[in-house]
Amino acid sequence: MDPFLKKFFPEVYTKMQEDTNISNYWIFDSQLLTSFTSSLYVAGLFASFFASSITKAFGRKPSILVGGVAFLAGSALGGAAFNVYMLILGRILLGFGVGFANQSVPLYLSEMAPPKHRGAINNGFQLSIGVGVLLANLINYGTQKIKGGWGWRISLAMAAIPASFITLGALFLPETPNSLIQLSNDHQKAKLMLQKVRGTQDVQVELDDLIKANEVSKTIKHPFKKIMQRKYRPQFVMAIEIPFFQQVTGINVIGFYAPVLFRTIGLGESASLMSTVVTGGSTFMSMLIVDKLGRRVLLTIGGTQMLVSQIVIGSIMATQLGDHGTNGTKLSWVKIEPPLLWQ
After folding, report:
1. Domain locations in the chain?
2. Is the separation of the CB atoms in 76 and 90 below 8 Å?
């Protein structure tokens, strides 16, 4: 948003408005702006390294609570920011929230869900992320139109609404049976919890499996070394390599910097924000067809579409955008369509 850039990144705003001779690839060349954007993801990466240890030592519920509190603090700082340092600190706190929530929430859902519904419930987690991204983009688009130039404060501060649900909800969550066995070795309490969440008294077989799994996990001293062994290669590929290569394809650059990219190629402030709404709504299609086509087919299709979309976008930018000027509206919208596929 222009008022946001004027207040915190005036050099970038000046380049956009006044310096017509500057290269398109240097308009947003600001280490401070990059730090603001990337600080969330760096903090999330850092938090993920020790979030699992905290979850293991104290339980899933406290880890979710820590994530919720971090979200609340980060949104408060962002909405009330009067300098760029408050903005970045708020982003870092949001990153810590992401690191804790992304680690503990799927784990909590998997452990509490009945086995036959586990996939659907974890799919619901991904759907919720998609809904959140779409709502955030809609909020950005709406608050950008507020007169007075303070709409960005609402946009940043409204993260406190879902953060409040996470924080307050975590206070009322029961601990998972797995965590009860892991932390206190209280088999009776774990059995009662299993009976409650499964809605049946016949849970002894599942309880025995949980107890056995917990005993086996205690014998593994170096889990990361263990998973590197040849016999665990399928698990290693699924748990580490697939997510790793998905992240380093470069598609996240388009996702995270979409408004900046779309403004560079010729769309205005309002249109660039609307474009992120369009691209953010594509998650729902994959949710509808994942069970019909299968995970492997969808992964193959998604990978192919990512490859094609990045080639299309890169080719148009290289041949049509150049160092100066814009693509024009038609070519700009052509570049918005391919990202609809990769979600």
Report:
1. 1-173, 176-219, 250-343
2. yes
